[in-house]
Write a structure and sequence with these properties.
CATH class: Mainly Beta
Number of domains: 1
CATH architecture: Beta Barrel
Order of helices and strands: HHHEHHHEEEEHHEEEEEEEEEEEEEEEEE
Strand content: over 45%
CATH topology: Porin
Largest sheet: 14 strands, antiparallel, barrel
Helix content: 10-25%
Structural class: alpha+beta
Number of strands: 22
Radius of gyration: 26 Å
CATH superfamily: Outer membrane protein transport protein (OMPP1/FadL/TodX)
Length: about 425
C-alpha cells in the first residue's frame, strides 16, 4: 500500500457518500443564506413551516410555493493537512522508500518527520458536506412541505501509539527505523516490531482509519401561526408537528480502501419518527417595521437508529432573530444561535450573522456577514451575497457564502467553508 492514500481516502470519505447524510441547525432559503444566515424573523411564507411557523400568522399571500436546493462544505482541518503533505512531496518520498528503505537520505528523513507531525495532527479532522433541499407551501396561516437537511462527514482517526518511521528494505521481512538506522552498524527490525510501532503498519491494519458518518432527515410538517393583538403590539405564535424520515450511515474504513462504499446500502438504517417546533414573533406597537422572533426546533429530541444498535439524538436548538424594514426598498435582518450545535463529525457551530435586502423592484440584492462563535471555528468571517429577480409569481434566487480563511491543495486555494443555494418561488 502507498501510505499517501491516507490523504486521498480522507477526501473520498467526505465526497463519495452523497447518498447518505447528516445534520446541523440550518435556516433554509437562498434569501437567508445570502443575508448572513438570518431568516427566523424574515422568511418567505412558503418556508415558514420550517424556519419559524410563527411567521405564518402574518402571511400576506393567499398561496405561496418555494422550491430550492443547496450544498455547503466545511473543511474541519484535513484540507490544510492535505495541502501541506502535497507541498512536502510526501507521496513521492513514501513510494521511494516502500521496499527500498536502505536508500533513504537525510532529506527523506527530514521530509517524513515533518509529514508524520502533519499526519498525527490530522486526528479527528476531516470534511463535512451539508446538502439541503426544500419544497415549501403555504396557504394563508397554514404551511407544509418537504424539507431535507443533511450532514455528511469523513473524519480521520490516527493511531497515536504507532507513529515510528519503519520501512521494509529490499530484503523481504527485514525492516529499519530510518530515524535511527546507521549503515555502519545496522540494526534490523523484525516484522513484529514493525507491526507494533510503524505508522505505515497502523494504516495497513486499520487502526489508523476513517470514520464515515451521515444523517439525512426529510421533514413533512403541518404548521400553523396565529397572531394576538395587544395594546403593546402583535404577538404571533406558531407551531409545527412534523413527520421525520431519517437515514443514518456509519462505517469505519481503512485509509487505503478502494471499495469502501460498494456495499453502502447495507449500512444504511432508516427511522421514522416525529418532531415538534415552536416559534414566536413580536411586532411592537411603536413600530410595525420591526419584527423580533424566536424559534425552538426539535423540542422533543427526536432520535434516529444507527448501525450497531445505537441512536443519534437531535437535541433542541434555539435561535433568535430580528428584522427591520426601512421604507419599501431596504430590509435589515440579524440571527443568533442561542445553543451550540454539534455536528456528527464533532465540529460545533453557533452562528451569529445578519445582512441587508435591497429591493429594486425586478431585482433584489442581498449582502451579509456571519461568524461561527464556537471555539473550534476554522472558517473565520463568512461573507454572504445573493441576487434575485422576477415578479412575485415566478421569482428566481441565487446565493452563496464564502469563508475569509482558506486552505490550499497543490497550490490551489479554497475557502474553509462555502455554500451555494438556488431557489424558485411563486406567490399569489
Amino acid at each position: 500500500m502507498s501510505f499517501s492514500k491516507i490523504t486521498l481516502s480522507l477526501i473520498a470519505s467526505a465526497c463519495a457518500v452523497t447518498a447518505v447524510s447528516a445534520m446541523e441547525f440550518q435556516v433554509l432559503g437562498a434569501k437567508a443564506a445570502s443575508m448572513g444566515g438570518a431568516g427566523v424573523a424574515t422568511s418567505p411564507s412558503s418556508l415558514s413551516a420550517y424556519n419559524n411557523p410563527a411567521l405564518l400568522a402574518k402571511n400576506k399571500e393567499k398561496f405561496s410555493l418555494h422550491i430550492g436546493a443547496g450544498v455547503g462544505l466545511k473543511d474541519t482541518g484535513a484540507g490544510k493537512a492535505v495541502g501541506d503533505l502535497s507541498d512536502l512531496k510526501f507521496s513521492d518520498t513514501m513510494d521511494k522508500l516502500d521496499g527500498n528503505a536502505q536508500s533513504v537520505t537525510q532529506t527523506d528523513i527530514d521530509t517524513l518527520k515533518k509529514a508524520r507531525d502533519i499526519v498525527t495532527g490530522m486526528d479527528k479532522k476531516g470534511f463535512s458536506l451539508n446538502p439541503t433541499a426544500d419544497f415549501g407551501l403555504s396557504y394563508k396561516s397554514f404551511g407544509t412541505g418537504l424539507f431535507i437537511t443533511s450532514d455528511i462527514g469523513g473524519v480521520a482517526n490516527v493511531d497515536q501509539t504507532r507513529t515510528a518511521l519503519i520501512f521494509e528494505t529490499s530484503t523481504p521481512g527485514q525492516y529499519i527505523d530510518i530515524e535511527t538506522f546507521n549503515p555502519n552498524s545496522p540494526v534490523y527490525l523484525t516484522q513484529a516490531q514493525y507491526q507494533a510501532a510503524s505508522l505505515k503498519a497502523a494504516a495497513d491494519s486499520g487502526t489508523t482509519n476513517i470514520d464515515v458518518i451521515g444523517l439525512a432527515v426529510a421533514e413533512v410538517p403541518l404548521a400553523y401561526g396565529y397572531a394576538f393583538e395587544t395594546p403593546y403590539g402583535s404577538l404571533s405564535v406558531g407551531g409545527a408537528a412534523k413527520v421525520m424520515a431519517g437515514k443514518t450511515f456509519y462505517t469505519q474504513v481503512k485509509v487505503d480502501s478502494t471499495n469502501a462504499f460498494d456495499n453502502a446500502d447495507k449500512n444504511v438504517v432508516n427511522t421514522t419518527t416525529f418532531g415538534v417546533d415552536l416559534g414566536l414573533a413580536y411586532q411592537p406597537s411603536f413600530s410595525e417595521s420591526l419584527n423580533l422572533a424566536l424559534v425552538g426546533k426539535n423540542l422533543n429530541k427526536p432520535s434516529f437508529n444507527v448501525q450497531g444498535g445505537g441512536k443519534y439524538e437531535i437535541k433542541p436548538a434555539y435561535r433568535a432573530g430580528a428584522a427591520y424594514k426601512v421604507g419599501k426598498r431596504l430590509e435589515l435582518a440579524f440571527d443568533a444561535d442561542l445553543t451550540e450545535n454539534k455536528g456528527l463529525t464533532g465540529y460545533n457551530t453557533r452562528y451569529v450573522g445578519g445582512g441587508a435586502n435591497i429591493d429594486l423592484t425586478l431585482l433584489e440584492l442581498n449582502l451579509g456577514l456571519m461568524k461561527n462563535t464556537a471555539a473550534n471555528d476554522l472558517a473565520g468571517l463568512i461573507y454572504t451575497a445573493g441576487i434575485a429577480t422576477g415578479p412575485s409569481w415566478l421569482h428566481f434566487e441565487l446565493s452563496g457564502q464564502m469563508a475569509s480563511k482558506s486552505g490550499a491543495v497543490d497550490g490551489t486555494a479554497y475557502p474553509m467553508q462555502a455554500l451555494v443555494n438556488f431557489a424558485l418561488s411563486s406567490a399569489w
